[in-house]
Task: structure prediction
Amino acid sequence: MGLPFDISYVFSFMPKLASTLLLTLGIVAGSLLSGLLLGLIAALPRLYRVPVLQQVSIAYASFFRGTPILIQLFLIYYGLPELLKTVHIDVTRTPVLVFVILTYGLHTGAFVSETIRGAIMAVDRGQVEAAYALGMTGPQAFLRIAAPQALAIAVPVLANQTLALLKETSLAFTLGVMEMSGKAQSLARITQHFLEAYLALALIYLAVAFILEKLLLAAERRLLRHELPGEASGRFRLRRGLTLRKLASGLQGGSPS
Result:
C-alpha cells in the first residue's frame, strides 16, 4: 500500500507526465499512418477477390483482431528478431520504439482493413456504373465517386479506432518504452503515491481523448457537409433526388428531370 492520498501530488505529477505526451502521440501517429497503409493493402485482395492473397488477408485480420495487443507486442519484439535470424538478418540493435509502432500498426491495420472493405461495399454500385457511363475510367470512378463516400462512411469508425489506439499505447511500457504510463508507474514507485500518479495519468488521457474526439468530429462533419440539410455553398449541387445514375441516363437519353 502507498502513502495517504494527497491531491497536491496529482498536480505536481501532471507536468512530469505531460513531458512524455509527445512520445505517446508519436506512437499513435506512427501506428495510425502505418495501420492505414497496411489496412488498405490488406483490404484490396478481399475487395477484388485475388486468389491466395485473399486468404492471407483474412488470416492476417483474424489473427490481429482475435489476439490481445499485449501478446502481439511480445511476439513481435521477441519473435521477429529470432525469425529474421534464420535468413541472416540481425535486428537486435533496432530501437524498441520501432517494434512498438510496428506492432500497433499491424494491429490497427487489421481493423482498418475491415473498415475500408465495409465502407467501399456500402457505396451504391449504381453510382460507379453511372460514372462509367459518363466516360470515367476505373481509377477515376474510384477516386472521384467511391472513395470520398467510403471515407465519409469510415471516418466515425476510424475515429473510434484512433481513440482506442491512444489508450492501448499504455501497454508500450511493458517493453521498456518510457511513455506516459511508464512514467506514471515510475513516479508512483518512487513517491509511493500510486493513486495520485494514476489519477493524474487518467486526467491527461481524458483531456487528450476529448481534444482528438472534437477534431475527428469536425473532420467527419466536413466530409459529410454535402448531406447536411440547409447547408448552402457556392459549388454546384445536385437537386434532392437527382442521383448520379439519373444524371447519366439523362445525358444519354435527354435532359434530366
Q: What stands out?
A: The longest helix spans residues 138-168. Confidence is low (pLDDT under 50) at residues 230-245. The radius of gyration is 24 Å.
